[in-house]
Each structure stands twice: as C-alpha cells, then as structure tokens.
Design brief:
This protein is an alpha/beta fold. Helix content is about 30%, strand content about 20%.
C-alpha cells in the first residue's frame, strides 16, 4: 500500500490522569465536527487489521543484546533501550521478550533477588542514579505499540560469563544446599521444592508489580548436558532425590525429574492467570520434543530425556498460552523448518498460540554456513501457510540492530510491510467489547481525535484507521492515550473517514466507531 502522507497522521498525546478521563470522554462525545458513520453503510467499513505475533528476544545474559556492556551509566542504558524499541517498532514488530532474570538475578528493582551483574557490573549493586529498567521498558514499549513480555530463566544460578562474586542475597549464598555446580555453571536443583517456590515467587512478584503483557520461560530446565569432573553428565541431585524417596515417592528418577518441571509449569500458568488473567504465559522449548517426532527425524537432542522437558504435554494440556519451539532450521533441508512446524501444530489440542522461534541471528554473509535474508522471508511465509500458526519470534535483537545482510530492512519491505495486531487469546478473557467513544474536535491549531473507552472496558490498544484519497493508513496506539493530532497529508489529500477500534487486554476487538470528516 502506498503511504498516504498523513504527516505523522497520529501523534499520541500523553494520557491524562484518571480524574480527567471522564472529561475526555465527555469532550469526545460532544465533539460534533465529524458525523457518525454506521457500519451498516459499506462505505464506512475499514479494512481488517492483520493478526500476527511478531516478537523478538532481547537477551541480557552475556550482554548479547542489551545492555551492550555491564556498568553502563543509566543515561546510556536508557538510550540503548529506547533505540532498541524504536528499531523494533520501525521494523513492524509488535512484541519484545526482554530477559529480566538471566541467572537468579534481576534487571529490575527486586526485594527477592539481587541486581544483575549484566546491568551494573557487580551483582547486588543498584544502578546509580537508581532506575528500574523493566518499568522503563514497559512504558516505552507500550508507547510504541509493542507488547512487553518479561523473560525468566527458571533455574540457572550462574553463567560462565558472569565473572564477579555472587551477592549475599543470591540464592547460592543464602541456600547453597539448593544450588549445584554442574559443568561450568551453577544450577538451582529443580527437585528442591524451595527452588520451585523461589521461581514462582519471583515471577508472580513481577506480574503483580508491572504492567507486562506476558511471562516467558526459555528452554533451560534441567541443564543441557555437560561433562562433570567425575566423567558423568548426570545432574547431581542425590540430595533432593533421596528426600523424595524418603517422603514415599514412587516415580522412577527420570519421571520424577520431569514431574518437577511439570509442577512448575502447571503452577505458574494457574497462578499467573489467577493474578492477572490477561497476562500470557509462554515457553520456548528445544526444537524437538523427542527424536522420532516427527517420524523422519530420528536423531538430535532428546529434550524429554536430558532437559526433562515434556513440552508436548504442556502444549496439549493448555498449560501455556503460547509455545515458541526454537525451530532453527532452513526451509529447504531434510529436517526442515516446515516439517517441524507442522508436527508442532498437530500437537495443539487446546488451540493455544504457536509462535515458532526463528534463528534470525543465523543470518551471515561470507561464512560457509551462511543464512541470507531471503531465508527469513521464506520462513515467515511458511509460517503463514501452516494452519493454526499465527506468528513468530526472532532470535535475537542484535541481528536487527546491526541489520545483517539487510535482514530487518527486507522483512519490513516485504512480509512486515503492513502493521499487525497481536492475535486474540479468547480462552483468557472472552466477550465482545462495546465500541469506543470517539469524536473530532477542530480548532485553529488543528484537528484532534478524542477517544475514550466505553464504560467498564479496559483498553490495551487503539486501532486508528484513517482514509484519505481512497487509501487507508493504520496505526496501533497505546490504550492509555486519549487524544491524537490528526493532520492532512503534504499533498493536501483530505482525510474523509476515521475508524477507531478498542483492543482489550487479551486481544479481543470492540465494535468500530467510524466518523465521516466534513
């Protein structure tokens, strides 16, 4: 679609305090410059908005994506984060999965776990001057029409890239009996009930205190196999295993390990929904559930038997609102992207979201195993061709910030040329929403579109659609905003129709309020 030149067609104004929102609604209702345009009039119907999840992981571990190095002054850390969110929005993405707990630490203000070394340079040291990166990220993401999902690692206690000492408040210092040395890492033992309680407490603390849109776990449950000093690759959980047996446990050891992980997943999903039923819970497991599934894929890591992650079970039981298997494969190889995606789609018994992970960081030039930008375009198209799949997540933001092989630029010009709204999740919060209140106020300074939700309606986004010269321009704007400047295009093409739709916290769309502009 040709850009209609509506000079910054919507300029989001800062939302007023709650006491003024009623005044805004009354002003919108009283603004009579524009005339209501009933949806029974086919000339008033705006084109449908695409529903597709377009996410990107932003990793803090090893300072992969953000912040660029430990100990950045807060002003620079904020500037980097702002630039990152600007880039995500400019590319046509609509969600950011920000890693806030890489290893029993916090990239936000927490009374439970210490500040992360990856943020301040020393674990437990708060940023100076004090700021809260997660609060900042949520506000800035929403202002750009982006969902913000908080990404947690459930069990890692220390990663090899962390060189400094552990803070006194870290779980490995407070309860060393719960943490095991495994290979090059420290790992919280999933078999310890206190460990699962700690992770649950950390996640729910964030859910309660921050206006996040989702909780995300990565693929690290029991750790990926490493050789221990005694030559074994088995996880050293004798203490928790013996305690389980002493309590009368009957499961075999591998089944018991899987049940430990299952317990965390099922409990997290239930407790998040209880606290805030609109916050999505998602997991990004390893690409294979087990070798032999699908039947033609007979080799590869058995995540079921080594990470003790029964990801198919979680999906089939509806313990997640979305699943993001890391399908880091090409579309044209034997163990292809499409083959794995089709298998996962067939496991979706509860009709949850399936948003596969794409290896966008695999884009290289000049390497023997290079991926080119066209591979990612092909994967997005393959995703759209697979029934019951409605989006994808890119690993990771660094590839877009550097725009390797122009991958982001090309995605924006092709498959992401039109804006997309995150898909609806009707099992979370269902029911149609009443149309918003909308009016156009004309002053000497210009036209202002005033919007307000219907009584009792919580709005996450506004979908604002402007028609000029027969062409539509669509923007997705933070639901806290109440007024938008609407200006004509540079070539004086006049806006003659405005359509406003409210989008609820779980993605349900309201009826449309359409206005004819005289």
């Amino acid at each position: 679609m040709r850009r209609i030149g509506v000079a910054a067609a919507l300029i989001a104004a800062a939302a007023g305090p709650p006491a003024l929102r009623g005044q805004t609604a009354r002003a919108a209702a009283a603004a009579t410059v524009a005339l209501p345009c009933p949806q029974s009039d086919t000339a008033c119907i705006a084109p449908p908005v695409m529903r597709e999840f377009r996410g990107v992981w932003v990793a803090s571990v090893r300072n992969l994506d953000w912040p660029s190095r430990p100990g950045l002054p807060p002003s620079l850390a904020k500037a980097e984060l702002t630039a990152l969110l600007d880039r995500a929005a400019a590319l046509g993405l609509n969600a950011v999965l920000l890693q806030v707990r890489p290893a029993g630490d916090a990239l936000y203000e927490s009374k439970i776990e210490p500040w992360s070394e990856y943020l301040t340079g020393k674990q437990g040291l708060p940023p100076a001057p004090l700021w809260d990166p997660l609060q900042f990220a949520v506000e800035q993401a929403h202002a750009r029409g982006l969902e913000l999902h908080a990404w947690f690692n459930p069990y890692r206690a220390k990663e090899p890239s962390a060189k400094g000492p552990l803070a006194a408040t870290h779980i490995a210092r407070r309860h060393p009996e719960l943490v095991k040395k495994y290979g090059t890492q420290l790992w919280m033992d999933p078999g310890e009930p206190e460990v699962r309680a700690q992770t649950l407490r950390v996640v729910l603390d964030v859910v309660k205190r921050y206006d996040i849109d989702g909780v995300h776990l990565d693929d690290y449950f029991y750790p990926y196999p490493e050789r221990r000093p005694n030559g074994s690759t088995d996880f050293p959980d004798d203490r928790s295993w013996k305690a389980y047996k002493k309590r009368g446990g009957k499961l075999a050891r591998d089944d018991w390990r899987r049940s430990n992980v299952d317990d965390l997943i099922e409990t997290l999903h239930a407790e998040i929904a209880k606290e805030k039923p609109w916050v999505k819970f998602g997991i990004s497991p390893f690409q294979l559930w087990r070798p032999g599934y699908p039947a033609s894929v007979t080799t590869g890591l058995d995540a079921y038997a080594t990470l003790y992650a029964d990801s198919r079970k979680w999906f089939m039981k509806g313990w997640v609102d979305y699943l993001t298997p890391q399908l880091y494969r090409r579309v044209d190889e034997e163990r292809s992207y499409g083959l794995l995606l089709k298998w996962w789609a067939e496991q979706n018994a509860m009709q949850r979201h399936l948003w596969p992970g794409l290896y966008t960081s695999g884009v290289r030039t000049g390497a023997a195993t290079e991926w080119r930008r066209g591979e990612l375009v092909a994967q997005v198209l393959a995703t759209r061709d697979q029934p019951a799949v409605d989006g994808e997540v890119h690993f990771s933001m660094e590839a877009f910030l550097s725009d390797r092989d122009s991958v982001g630029t090309v995605l924006r010009r092709t498959v992401y040329a039109q804006p997309a709204l995150v898909p609806d999740s009707p099992w979370m919060i269902s029911g149609a929403q009443a149309a918003p209140i909308a009016g156009l106020k004309r002053t000497a300074q210009g036209d202002s579109l005033l919007v307000a939700p219907a009584v009792g309606v919580a709005v996450r986004w506004w979908v604002i659609q402007l028609r000029a010269g027969g062409l539509w321009n669509t923007q997705i704007v933070d639901g806290s905003t109440r007024a938008f400047g609407v200006s004509s295009s540079r070539d004086a093409t006049r806006i003659d129709l405005i359509a406003v739709t409210a989008v609820g916290r779980a993605g349900a769309m309201s009826a449309v309020s359409a206005l004819r502009v005289p």
